[in-house]
Amino acid sequence: MYRHTSIFILFFQLGIVSAQVNFTNIISYIAADSLEGREPATKGDTLTQNYLIQFFKNQHLTIKKQSFAFTFNQKTDSATNILAYCDNQQDSTIVITAHYDHLGWGNNKSREIIHKHQIHNGADDNASGVAMLLMLAKYLTSDSNQVKATYNYLFVGYGAHELGLFGSKYFVESEIAQKLKIKVALNFDMVGRLNKTNPILKIGGTIRDTCYNAFFKKYENEKLHFRLADEQLLQSDATFLYEKKIPTFTFTTGIHEDYHRAGDDSHKINYEGLTTIFRFMQAFLNAIAP
Fold first, then answer.
1. In which domain, by residue range, is 205 found?
2. What does the pLDDT look like over 160-179, one tens digit per residue?
3. pTM, to two decimals
């Protein structure tokens, strides 16, 4: 008995280490200087798209690029949403999203006061959310996952978020979204700075959809507390799905001193905290399975 328990603990610990390594690798690439802050319609933006596409292909998902035009500061440009679909031949779909763009070399969204023209890597905003998106895609399509075939899954990397939520608005108004019967939508935006002494994960969307609140309260432990804060929702990509009366949640560890500044780099991410949130999301997705 003790031997079996020890083996289980060992595999659990190895799983945690593996998840942290994966989070580190994903964020280190997406938030590298070489991608120059992932501003829409730049080389770094394209490289990020290619990274997402390859990751989703490795999970054997069906990929679609959703290109669109947007206007910012009287200039029209183009951006792309990356969609990856897991068709389990089910009636309804869970949509999981995160925006992958950031501020490039800084623009009028930058909070740098003097030296605005620096690479804004956006490790937390939102390489951390993209990492959660990708890791959940890997988890939900794995052969060992017990809830794999419960729903269809659509994973969406939004473009052109920072300049005005253009990617999420385009997706929600698209024919693809209109045809989906969405069970729930989960959005991740800045989930990489979980406070080590007061580990609060803010969840927007909980006032309307109170049926899920009991699970959140039951799950709370010393490693993860929740603040049910709907004001987070209206500032996020989740707002357009929420307005259509779709059960929608957005998750964030909140604003910090490096928000929209050049100091938002990968070495400042709390990778253990990211893994804690990942374990919570696995439990949540299992809990909403019929």
1. 2-287
2. 999 999 999 999 999 999 99
3. 0.92
